[in-house]
Amino acid sequence: MEIKRTSIKDLTYDRFIAEHWKPGVPLVFTDASQVWQANGTFCPEWFRNNYGDRHTDVNGTDYTMNEILDLVEGKDTSRPVPYPCKFHVNTQLPEVMTMLTPLSLNYAKPNWLQNPMFARGNWGGAIELFIGGPGGKFPYIHLDYYHLSAWINQLYGHKQFTVWPRGQEKYLYPDPNDPWKSLIVDHENPDYEKFPLYRNATPITFTVGPGETLFIPFGIWHTAKSLEPTMSIAFDLLNGHNFPLFLKDVWWFRRKNKLNALAHSSYAALAGTACKLGDLAHGHRA
Ligand SMILES: O=C(O)CCC(=O)C(=O)O
Ligand SMILES: [Fe+2]
User: Which residues, other chains included, contact 75 with Cβ-Cβ below 8 Å and sequence gap of 6+?
Assistant: First the structure.
């Protein structure tokens, strides 16, 4: 498997659905986020000037935007640079939301996570700003929770991603207690004594640069490494195609409390039905 790079000029929505969304094939768009109102605006200086004093928590420590940018840009060398540093856009940078329209980039649609029925619940469908410094590694190889598909929009700097083709869980040693995470910590220098089957894995590593958007379909194991100071905005996609697996996860995450699991699953099923009807009314087929 190779990761295709495509301009929006060369890929219609229908072809995206048929060739990437349905079969679960990752893709890098070279220019999809230029449709956002924010096109050309986002960079560290802009975030410093507008939201430099906004706070966020990273692994239990409070930082401001300026403090994070000083760390990732090497202006503050007094303490380690954590990765990932995240801002929850909806709540911590709400002014930025309108700049991310159309959120779908005209491809990630219909997106049921934009329906208020799903937005209300805590389903993992957040819009997040990621900030990282040189060498900052995502802590584990993983699948995204709830079988959501991820859209990672690189705003600034280059980030390296590694993905494993579908069907390679058997080489990736999922953690029995948290089967969305691999036990293999350092895939660049794997411990073959501990993880002999990993010899069969065929990771694909590639770089995503400013202005580019990576689509990671649900069920694709992945991880990332910031190669330099980077900023990206990630959001998730849910619709009729991944909904059955999403619903299974809603139950699974709450399975220890059956009443809670039932309440959440019933609500999610109801919301899903409402979204499906909405799709039909709007003529969406996906
Ligand atoms: O951009 C990254 O560091 C990867 C993020 C990711 O895969 C996730 O948050 O699930
Ligand atoms: Fe992920």
Answer: 69
| pLDDT tens digit sequence for 250-269 | 999 999 999 999 999 999 99
Please give the number of the atom of ligand 1 that sits closest to the Cα of 83: 3
Which pair of structure tokens corresponds to residue 177?
């207690």
Q: pTM of the prediction?
A: 0.96
Whether ligand 1 lies within 6 angstroms of the CB of 249 is answered as: no
Give the three-state DSSP class for 82.
coil
**pLDDT tens, residue by residue, 135-165:** 999 999 999 999 999 999 999 999 999 999 9
Is the separation of the CB atoms in 52 and 66 below 8 Å? yes
Residue nearest to atom 2 of ligand 1 (CA): 224
Instruction: Report whether the peptide linkage leading into residue 110 is cis, meaning its omega lies within 30 degrees of zero.
Output: yes
Best residue among 81, 130, 182 to mutate for probing ligand 1's pocket (most ligand atoms within 8 Å of CB) is: 130
Q: Is the CB of 272 under 6 A from ligand 1?
A: no
Can you list the domains of the chain with their CATH numbers?
4-108+123-238 (2.60.120.650)
Interval 27-61: pLDDT, tens: 999 999 999 999 999 999 999 999 999 999 999 99
Where do the DSSP E strands lie in the chain? 4-6, 27-29, 55-58, 61-64, 85-88, 128-132, 149-156, 159-164, 174-175, 178-182, 204-208, 213-216, 221-226, 230-237
- Closest protein CA for atom 1 of ligand 1: 224
Q: Is 105 exposed, middle or buried (0-12, 13-18, 19+ CB in 10 A)?
A: buried
- Residue of minimum CA distance from atom 6 in ligand 1: 223
